[in-house]
Design a protein that fits this description.
By secondary structure, the protein is of the alpha+beta class. The protein has two helices and twelve strands, in the order ααββββββββββββ. It is 24% helix and 30% strand. It is rod-shaped. This is Ubiquinol-cytochrome c reductase iron-sulfur subunit.
Length: 177
């Protein structure tokens, strides 16, 4: 670049980009609209995400029956648990078949048939000394092993004994068979 051109560029006034009134108005209204939309949307996002942020409670144990009442013959026990699903709290009624095994340990089986989810019952004319599902004739042994129709054994509850009482916890896969 020669000396003359360099002087011309050095003495030229700097051109500034000026904002028009129309641009100012659209930036101002757009910013105000985004601020108001954020004020409406953020509480909805918080509402949707809130259950994820809550601490999960571990599956608690429920006192169901005195230890002295448990025999080698399965006994049906009904009980309630408290559960929270998002914002919905409920106290569903559940059932379990509690018995003492040959090893002397207490175990509890879920009464829900693994074939199609009907409720099984113990003994009777249809299946003496077995669990029987009235829906499709599934049979289970005393330990919950599937004998007929059902693809899997009955699930069991975690069992804990304390101060002469039997407590049931969450359902786990059958560990006896």
């Amino acid at each position: 670049m020669d000396h003359n051109k360099q002087q011309e560029t050095a003495h030229k006034p700097v051109k500034r980009k000026e904002m028009s009134r129309r641009q100012f108005l659209s930036y101002t209204l757009g910013g105000a609209g985004a601020f108001m939309a954020g004020g409406a949307v953020l509480p909805m996002i918080r509402f949707a995400v809130d259950p994820i942020l809550q601490k999960k409670e571990s599956g608690g144990f429920v006192k169901v029956i005195e230890e002295s009442q448990v025999t080698s013959e399965p006994t049906e026990v009904k009980f309630k648990i408290h559960q929270v699903d998002g914002w919905y709290e409920s106290d569903p009624k559940l059932a379990a078949w509690i018995t003492k095994g040959d090893d002397g340990k207490i175990y509890a089986l879920s009464p829900v048939c693994k074939h199609l989810g009907c409720m099984v019952s113990w003994g009777g004319d249809a299946a003496p000394n077995k669990y029987h599902c009235p829906c499709h004739g599934a049979l289970y042994s005393k330990d919950g092993q599937a004998l007929k129709v059902a693809p899997k054994p009955l699930d069991e509850y975690e069992v804990r004994t304390e101060n002469g009482w039997v407590y049931l916890g969450p359902i786990i896969p059958n560990s006896r068979v």
